[in-house]
Amino acid sequence: MAVQSVESATTPVALGPAVALSCRECGERFGxxxxxxxxxxxxxxxxxYELPAGDxxxxxxxxxxxxxxxxxxxPLLPVPADVADKPGLNPGFTKLVKADNLARELxxxxxxxxxxxxGNPTHSFKDRVVAIAVEAARAFGFTTLSCSSTGNLAGxxxxxxxxxxxxxxxxxxxxxxxxxxxxxxVYGGDLVGIEGTYDDVNRFCSELIGDPLGEGWGFVNVNxxxxxxxxxxTLAYEICEQLGWRLPDQIVVPIxxxxxxxxxxxxxxxxxxLGLVEDRPYKIFGAQAEGCSPVSRAFKDGQDVVRPVKxxxxxxxxxxxxxxxxxxxxxxxxRTGGAVEDVTDAEIVDAIRLLARTEGIFAETAGGVTxxxxxxxxxxxxxxxxxTTVVLNTGDGLKTLDAVAAGPTVTIRPxxxxxxxxxxxxx
Length: 427
Ligand SMILES: Cc1ncc(COP(=O)(O)O)c(C=O)c1O
Ligand SMILES: [Zn+2]
Known about the structure:
Blueprint: E1 18-23, E2 29-30, E3 45-49, H1 56-64, E4 95-98, H2 100-106, E5 112-116, H3 126-140, E6 144-148, H4 152-164, E7 167-173, H5 178-186, E8 190-194, H6 198-209, E9 217-219, H7 225-230, H8 233-242, E10 250-254, H9 259-273, E11 283-289, H10 294-301, H11 326-336, E12 340-343, H12 345-359, H13 365-379, E13 389-393, H14 416-422
Parallel strand pairs: 5-13, 6-7, 6-9, 7-8, 10-11, 10-13, 11-12
Antiparallel strand pairs: 1-2, 1-3, 4-5
Helix pairs in contact: 2-12, 3-4, 4-5, 8-9, 9-11, 10-11, 12-13
The structure holds pyridoxal-5'-phosphate (PLP) and zinc ion (ZN).
């Protein structure tokens, strides 16, 4: 598809309030199309909007009367106006759990919330980003949906493709957790294991786009990346709406490519600009696993450059050694007064158990990373316990069972005597 500069062409597709793609580095604008890098400076592109100006009360009422999923925010997303009527998984509006028991354990007094995205259709936040990418894929006439994935995205793409009537072919590192592989495979598309890390998979997919072999394929996180990223804004919208149209003071977000964190910041800024929430400071904290912590390392070293690493951690969903949005994450953490921190694999497992034991929420390893980092940041005094804090759980613990391998407290014969002998009876 030809790429036209916005000045010289009318936009070929209608994607709601989206008017152009703009370069995050030099600001050059391009028409809406399946492109992801600036033709001038090769910087990453993002969606630019003409957002509904005027009466915030009317917009708030319109949102609140919308469906109980991400499409309530359609006026702020690059999707057609009738998106809610199309066949899709309709993710979103997941629970914001007031985590008082966890707050007590961590010493947080200002209100602690867990945004629990394990409640999405394929049990991770990736359903949000895929839902937006599917609309772009439809608009651009793609027939096959594809992606490079650390596991959750593969499942989300397979499921969304099945429901929306696309073919799918997704690419993953060959050694992912069994739960994620099964979920990626069950929806009936092709699943290709690649011998290598996620970064190898991603590089391979970039080559495929430029080759006739990939003709007609929409890679949700490569040539549809500008649209895909916008799905993460809905996390920011929902958190504020669920807090009564109020900004949280602090948010703790996991980092793989860093896209989710940067788009949550974009979403919060939009809500302020639209007058939907009061304009006051908020801090964004990034969370990584120590075994794949290039952004955390750069933050601590005071660097602007993120040096790629070779991942080695149980948090495989966050195992991106060369995160595309890394430098933007550093900017946001510094600008908002936040930080980027990392935790060891043992701390991740402890945190998964802590969240399960205190709140009845079973997180995948990525959720262990955010809860573990929150605990560490409270202990070090970096995160202010007297402020309202939201911690993201982006995936379901059933996908990473091996991380917390556990069994019955005891196994006994089915008799009262055996139960008494086990020492668990109340008296
Ligand atoms: C469960 C989970 N949480 C968080 C992330 C981070 O996403 P991002 O690449 O937007 O930083 C991922 C990415 O795969 C993920 O699978
Ligand atoms: Zn540019």
